[in-house]
Amino acid sequence: MNIVNTLAYYNEKAKEFCENTVNADVSPQRDRFLTHLIKGDRILDFGCGSGRDTKAFLELGYEVEAIDGSRELCKVASEYTGIEVKNMFFNELDAVERYDGIWACSSILHVSKDELKTVLKKMVIALKDGGVIYTSFKYGDFEGERNGRYFSDFTEESFGNFISDCSEIQIIDTWITGDVRPGRGEEKWLNLIMKK
Fold first, then answer.
1. Smallest Cα–Cα separation from 36: which of 134, 170, 157, 141?
2. For the chain, give me the number of helices (H) and strands (E)?
3. What is the mean pLDDT of the chain?
């Protein structure tokens, strides 16, 4: 898996990364995702990073489970959210029809395109019928290492083509946003909501 350097990056810079992202305002994306869910639904925060969104979902009355591949991020996020964040890799997801929603904000973009389809299929299996996935990718066609981490970028067209053979899921919403972190506004993000 192309994840070794990426995990080393997050383990080494966990504190700094959390400080830079914990206050990033992704509430418009969360709100758009939550229109497809009802209070009390079970959400998996798939690659939770600082735990920012896990905490927000908990405070809004959802049942939340959170995972991250970085041991150090799991420690920080567990402390921040008050729930145990499980240390596991995306390809280890083995739940079956457990979640009403899966939130994968800026997370599965670190999986190579070769492995991403397998991860997406596991996400679909983990969703209840009618469940939704939110995910986001940097906008473009790049794939490879950038600043010490692995990225798979997509456009609307390339992602649509990428999942065209995944008949169990369909894209129901896509939109482009700028990066919400200070000084990063010129970076564009592809946001997607898919339904099982």
1. 134
2. 7, 9
3. 94
First-residue to last-residue Cα distance in the chain: 27
**Spatial contact of 158 and 142, defined as CB atoms under 8 Å apart:** no
pLDDT at 130 over 90: yes
- At residue 174, the pLDDT reads 98
If residue 144 lies in a helix (H) or strand (E), which one and from where to where? strand 143-146
pLDDT of residue 79: 97
Return the domain boundaries, the chain: 4-195
Residues 6 or more apart in contact with residue 42 via CB below 8 angstroms: 62, 63, 64, 65, 98, 99, 100, 101
Question: Each residue of 160-170: pLDDT tens digit?
Answer: 999 999 999 99
How does residue 3 score in pLDDT terms, banded at 50, 70 and 90? Answer: confident
Q: Give me the residue label for tokens 């240390």.
A: 87
Going by C-alpha positions, the residue among 167, 88, 52 that lies closest to residue 120 is 167
CATH of domain 4-195: 3.40.50.150
